[in-house]
Amino acid sequence: MVRRKKAPDSLTPLELKIMQVLWREGQGNVQHVQKNLPAGTELAYTTVQTMLNVLERKGRVRRRLNGRAFDYRAVVSEEKILGQAVRDLVERMFGGSSEELVMSLVKSREIDLERLAELSRQMGRRMAAEAKEERDESSR
Predict the structure, then answer these.
(1) Is the CB of residue 72 less than 8 Å from the CB of residue 33?
(2) N or C: which end of the chain has fewer CB within 10 A?
(3) pTM, 2 dp
(4) Is 57 within 8 Å of 38 (Cβ atoms)?
(5) Which of 39, 50, 46 lies closest to 15, judged by CA?
(6) What do you get for the CA distance between the two ends of the chain, in Å?
(7) Residue 8: per-residue pLDDT
(8) Helix crossing, 78-94 with 98-107: angle to 10°?
């Protein structure tokens, strides 16, 4: 069996669930993270503790001693992790072509052409606002 090498910055599904708790809650100790995992995710305290320690070694979270327990907080943003995951998906599944990803979404009816047009208009407005902001900053 050939194993695909994981992207260096990617998270496992379990790591992602734990990070989502920290992004939503801000910070927490092992017990807090354990209690705030999505419904149906029943994990032992020691499993959550191990995963938080793995995330800390990977540089995804930081921990601070608070009494007798560590509080953990995310040091990498959800947006950064999402961007890395999308780039990895596009590279692996679509040969690096984001256009192929969009076409796949249209073909599989995950998105219709009307919604795609609306997203395009939104992106145009966002890009125009960012360009205006950059012009305003450079004129100061």
Answers:
(1) yes
(2) N
(3) 0.72
(4) no
(5) 50
(6) 60
(7) 54
(8) 80
Residue whose structure tokens are 């990977």: 58
Cα distance between residue 104 and residue 74, in whole Å: 33
The mean pLDDT of 62-80, rounded to a whole number, is 95
Task: Look at the chain and count its residues.
Answer: 140
Using the predicted structure, report yes or no on whether residue 133 has a pLDDT greater than 60.
yes
Annotate 11-31 with b (16+ C-beta within 10 A) or e (fewer).
beebbebbbbbbeeeebbbbe
pLDDT score at 136: 86
Torsion, Cα 125 129 130 136, to 10 degrees, reads 160
Using DSSP's 3-state secondary structure scheme, residue 76 falls into coil
Predicted local confidence at residue 132, as pLDDT? 87
Instruction: List C-alpha distances in Å: 62 to 29, 94, 109.
Output: 11, 34, 41
Contact 15, 51 (CB under 8 A): yes
How is residue 90 written in tokens?
């596009």
Encoded tokens for 64: 């601070």
Residues 6 or more apart in contact with residue 129 via CB below 8 angstroms: none
How much is the mean pLDDT over the chain?
90
